[in-house]
Design goal:
mainly alpha, 78% helix
Length: 544
């Protein structure tokens, strides 16, 4: 027996506690929404013209964002696949990962610095004597921002698929004298066609539940998604009935999208692909090389210029003044406390679930209860995708407002919501590492009688330290840069760094916002580097 009865019971109880915590936290929020909604409120979802308009815009911007992200990613992925020896290719692939780990609010500030009214492009057009045709606000700005964040994700996933094409295909293509268009039609497109639906579904889900980008760049009631409308209903109008109706609508919409995604082929980023060389016959001609250089240059400029803008604008700000402001340190301490609690809670829940799943796999016989529990613990991290952060926050807002001061509970509530939002990533990092480690060491440890704290200290901790630090650092970075849950509870008594940045933007103190964004971006980048240094494989991160 690899596990004693006591060890098995301990693992199963831990997994049950973790699963019950997730289910109860989400279920109580949803139950409060349904209880507060009533028949009349639910009926208003179908009859209120405003809600119908918000729903149509949510679907429209998600569809167009997905279309543009996928369409622009295809030629960029082709260019990277055709030019394995392109100078700086490794750094271009790494650049593709930056928007996925960048706090959304900071990315929005960078885009405003390039495409905004006072941005680089409009300033250049004015110097040339032209009007300002570029507007970062409204539908155009939302689409631009979504493409900025999701095009790299789509490109990386497509590149992984293209680089898995067997080398024999290229030998046959070269032997037949295939031109680039024939290569795309007969070799590349069948591969891309199999993964594009899954990629598109993932991006559509991210865009349909987008909050911070739409809140920052929406530009008014005409460009409002469901989640932003929920926030506005509670924060500005204080119309709980409408907020509840919108929350129920968001849950239904998310459930439909997740159901559709379940029917599509799943996509996984197995890591960066910068080191893999593929010999292809269609990337050597001068016209194709010039085309690829142009595409890669445009792609790098599109992704890199906003990052440069953030850095330059942040350095121009009076950083010393920001550092000595009490509000900065108060918000930094609040953000760090919430991020630490969120990271620890998310990792703890993940460990409980993973240990229970591993225990079930060791059983010689599995009952129906074991199979159901195994499936439930595996799907637990996906439960949080069904109810986005702003909807969870709305449900708990409705539940706690009758108890007393909501802001007294807000920090713990925000930490819990952020922990659930980072749980899919944490599970993805820890579970493969834990399962592999147990396969390698469990039999030997059992035969030597190594157990308890001794096993944890000398066997488990050295092997699991790096994956655990990776999970903690990314979970903390995600929480640090999140504006979703705190947007509903932010006040003079509860200020985080993202909320402070957003407040400074709203009061037209853009220089302060730029400086704060640079500080926050550096902290999140350092956390990301700390978590990935020394890893052979780097996991991709999914935002809202």
């Amino acid at each position: 027996m690899l596990l004693t009865a006591a060890q098995r019971r301990f693992s199963m109880i831990g997994g049950a506690i973790g699963l019950a915590g997730i289910v109860l936290f989400i279920a109580l929020a949803v139950a409060m929404l349904l209880t507060a909604s009533g028949i009349q409120s639910l009926t208003s979802v179908l009859t209120d013209p405003y809600i119908g308009r918000v729903l149509r815009f949510t679907l429209l911007q998600a569809f167009l964002s997905t279309l543009f992200s996928v369409a622009f990613a295809i030629p960029l992925a082709q260019a990277l696949a055709r030019q394995p020896n392109f100078p700086g290719r490794q750094w271009i692939v790494r650049l593709m990962a930056l928007p996925m780990g960048l706090p959304v609010l900071i990315g929005a500030l960078g885009l405003i610095g390039i495409w905004g009214r006072q941005g680089v492009l409009n300033s250049l057009l004015l110097r040339l004597g032209l009007a300002e045709p570029i507007s970062i606000y409204g539908l155009a700005g939302i689409l631009l921002a979504h493409v900025f964040f999701n095009l790299p994700l789509a490109c990386r996933l497509m590149l992984m698929s293209l680089e898995r094409i067997p080398g024999e295909y290229w030998l046959v293509g070269a032997g037949l004298g295939m031109r680039p268009k024939d290569v795309f039609r007969f070799i590349e497109w069948p591969v891309l066609r199999s993964v594009i639906p899954g990629i598109a579904g993932l991006i559509f889900m991210l865009c349909a539940t987008s909050f911070t980008l739409v809140l920052t760049l929406g530009g008014g009631p005409a460009a409002t998604t469901i989640e932003v409308a929920i926030y506005q209903s509670l924060r500005f109008d204080f119309d709980p009935g409408r907020a509840v109706s919108l929350s129920v609508l968001q849950i239904v919409l998310t459930a439909i999208i997740l159901g559709g995604m379940a029917l599509l082929r799943s996509v996984d980023d197995e890591g960066t692909t910068a080191g893999k060389t593929v010999k292809r016959p269609d990337g050597t001609s001068l016209p194709v090389r010039l085309l690829d250089i142009t595409l890669l240059s445009l792609g790098v400029a599109f992704l890199l210029l906003p990052l440069i803008s953030i850095t330059v604008a942040g350095l121009r700000a009076n950083l010393i003044k920001l550092f000595i402001e009490p509000i900065f340190w108060r918000s930094a301490i609040t953000s760090a406390s919430i991020a630490t609690c969120s990271a620890v809670l998310s990792s703890s829940i993940a460990i409980l679930l993973i240990r229970a799943r591993h225990t079930i796999t060791l059983g010689r016989t599995r009952t129906h209860v074991d199979r159901a529990f195994f499936a439930a613990t595996g799907s637990a991290s996906s439960f949080v995708l069904l109810v986005p952060p702003i909807v969870l926050a709305t449900g708990w807002f409705m539940a706690l407002r009758s108890i007393g001061d909501i802001h007294a509970y807000a920090p713990l509530l925000i930490a819990a919501i952020n922990a659930l939002m980072s749980l899919p990533f944490v599970m993805r990092v820890l579970e493969p590492a834990y399962m592999t480690h147990q396969q390698r060491t469990q039999r030997l440890s059992a035969s030597l009688g190594i157990a308890g704290f001794t096993r944890l200290r000398f066997v488990d901790w050295p092997a699991m330290r790096r994956p655990l630090l990776t999970a903690l650092s990314f979970a903390a970075a995600l929480s640090l840069g999140d504006l979703g849950a705190v947007a509903l509870f932010g006040s003079d008594s509860l200020v985080t760094l993202p909320w402070l940045i957003y407040s400074r933007m709203g009061s037209y103190r853009t220089s302060d916002a730029d400086g704060l964004a640079l500080i926050l971006g550096i902290v999140c980048l350092l956390l990301t580097i700390a978590g990935t240094t020394g890893n052979a494989r780097k996991e991709a991160v999914l935002h809202g």
